[in-house]
Amino acid sequence: MTSPDPETLSHWYPVAMVGDLTSVTFQTMLLDRLIEISRDENNAFQALCGNRPLPVQERYGYLWTSLGEPVRDIPAIPEAAEPDRRLVCCGSIAVHSSGLRVVENFLDMAHFPFVHTNILGAEPETEVRRYQIETREDGAEIWATDCTFFQPQAALSASGGILTDYTYRVAAPFSTLLYKTCPASPERQDVIALFVQPVTATRSRAHPVMFLIDDSSSLGGLVEFQQFIFLQDRIILENQRPRLMPLDGKYEIPTMADRSSVAYRRWLKGKGVTYGALS
């Protein structure tokens, strides 16, 4: 049984969607999820927390908690406060994979034509154009900028293929965001976040959340579209070996298209993140 490292414990994680508060209270939902976590971990988290109360916050349609002493707040998303954006919570999806693998997959553009064929990519447009990597917030975040990729259907509201501009942001070891061209308002960007909750070192729950400028698509259609994309990713993630993500470059050889993955792994190693990583 592997215990979380101090860095992993010091961050916030979503544990449940807010849901219908007329019938289910915050406390009941949080308790149910923590019971599930403690069972999955053979009570490892319960042993870590003891009987002390855990902090609770509601943000972006989810309940969040931290099992340690949070060093930073839940990642700030200024776009979430814009009145014309739709908050689209896409549920919680179980993945038999390291949470670090889940974040890394989110950062990878090279798989678009082969995994999300005719949606996020298609042959022969397989080239990942060179992009930039930088750290921000005094090294607390990684950003990949100047990313572009041709996509046959970049969003549910898209009516045809476009060259999509991407900016990726790793806001915490298990929290990542994507800012991309908005088909409905090209001068602005849609925001898609993926908050990953590690349950064990090789099991996790993914919580996709979107902040969209789209007043025409149904809520059900938006959720279905995003879940369909993620479930395509889940097939790949659950077949990756090893399930733990190697942080040492000798285990998996990167290419130029993997610059964000290389930066992410080095950043994790520098922070001392070991939970979900291959030592």
UniProtKB/TrEMBL annotation:
The keyword Oxidoreductase applies. Keywords: Oxidoreductase. It comes from the Bacteria. InterPro entries: Cholesterol_7-desaturase (IPR050584), VanA_C_cat (IPR044043). SUPFAM superfamilies: Bet v1-like. Residues 100-269 form the Vanillate O-demethylase oxygenase-like C-terminal catalytic domain. Pfam families: VanA_C. This is (2Fe-2S)-binding protein. Gene3D superfamilies: Naphthalene 1,2-dioxygenase Alpha Subunit, Chain A, domain 1 (3.90.380.10). GO terms for molecular function: oxidoreductase activity. The keyword Amino-acid biosynthesis does not apply.
